[in-house]
Amino acid sequence: MHIHLTDQPIDVAAVLASVQDDGAGAVNTFIGTVRNQSTGRRVVRLDYEAYDAMAIRQMEHVAAQAQEKWPMLRQVAVTHRKGRLDIGDVAVVVAVSTPHRADSFAACQYIIDTIKQVVPIWKKEEYEDGSVWVAAHP
Amino acid sequence: MHIHLTDQPIDVAAVLASVQDDGAGAVNTFIGTVRNQSTGRRVVRLDYEAYDAMAIRQMEHVAAQAQEKWPMLRQVAVTHRKGRLDIGDVAVVVAVSTPHRADSFAACQYIIDTIKQVVPIWKKEEYEDGSVWVAAHP
Amino acid sequence: MKLKIALFGIAKEIVGSSSLDLDTPDEQSVAGLMNQLRSQYPALNELTSFAVAVNSEYAADDYRLHQRDEVALIPPVSGG
Amino acid sequence: MKLKIALFGIAKEIVGSSSLDLDTPDEQSVAGLMNQLRSQYPALNELTSFAVAVNSEYAADDYRLHQRDEVALIPPVSGG
């Protein structure tokens, strides 16, 4: 598995290349980017803070769990960005390769859904008139 | 929507770039590649034949159907390769962008599943000792 | 009327050509054309399925063909 | 014992620092530590949830803390 946390722009092509496997006919990729709005407010940029060591450890756990649930998984790659991101910037890339396509969709979705629940990374949305730590309050 | 049929190697990065949208936080991509085996036989290469005009028309229909089912779909791109492909070559790329991630997975999977049912493209698997038109016979 | 039918994939191999000129009644239905093809090329019956396309769209069984229609025989697709 | 607790995101803002030195009983449980933090920083009670991590793993409520553990307060995550 290929797990990275970086404060530099993510090279999506490199992530895709890392899951290439001659035994896999299917690659599914999820790319999360910074939207220009959130809950109706205009977003000007995002700041991502990470607990680096734990974030990497938890991303590894999620990838390993996916490998257990989908034993046919060939390759898994997760790269998460941290630091300051502008609109359109890539925040996260998940890519998986499997022999058949249905498994690639299911495994990729499981990984991104679980990452969002357990990986200690925090997103602060900056608006023109303030900022909010996303999901912090009910 | 961005629909292409080509006999040249697919530029995956260009397909991804074509669905980039500041209003979309989620991009899901499916990449179909040539596997080194099929139903237990070793594949040496594939030949894809297409009924070009109809294939493009049907890919457009599928993209339009997805747009109807997921009105929040921002961008859709489908590029299908034809001609001779070697192991590891990209045969098809589907990419969609949506505001939220669950829709991106569902729409992308719908598009590739439907393409495989309706788009007039035929795949001949070449083995070391023969060849078969895939799915032709029960 | 004379119909020109485009052939692809295994259908091209069964017929031995990439297109076929067929004599068929005027206003022949798609179903009628399919029966004519099945009896002329019995190997088509061994396919998982096949369809007829007219002007780049799948045609219903009761569609009535015209000489200027672009007709194609569509064996089971396997793209992607 | 003295525990050093790493703070992130909104927890860092609530406490006003990226780490906190806390006096806590020896072999304090995670649940006990959380109660201590809640009473010292009532704004933590307004969060959707928070968790304690020990040595880069989520810790169960009954885990007994040791001075050498790397402890962190984990407010609701929002990566991706």
Report mean pLDDT of chain A, rounded to a whole number. 96
**Share of β-strand residues of chain C:** 25-35%
The rough form of chain C would be described as globular
Mean pLDDT rating of chain C: 97
Strand content of chain A: 35-45%
Give the low-confidence spans of chain A: none
Keyphrases for this structure?
heterotetramer, A: 138 residues, alpha+beta, Aldehyde Oxidoreductase, domain 3, four-stranded mixed sheet, 31% helix, C: 80 residues, Ubiquitin-like (UB roll), five-stranded mixed sheet, 5 strands, Molybdopterin synthase catalytic subunit (chains A, B), molybdenum cofactor biosynthesis (chains A, B), MoaE_sf (chains A, B)
Quick take:
Chains C, D: InterPro entries: Beta-grasp_dom_sf, MOCS2A, Mopterin_synth/thiamin_S_b, ThiS/MoaD-like. The complex is a heterotetramer, with two copies of chain A (about 140 residues) and two copies of chain C (about 80 residues). Chain A is α+β, with helices and mostly antiparallel strands.
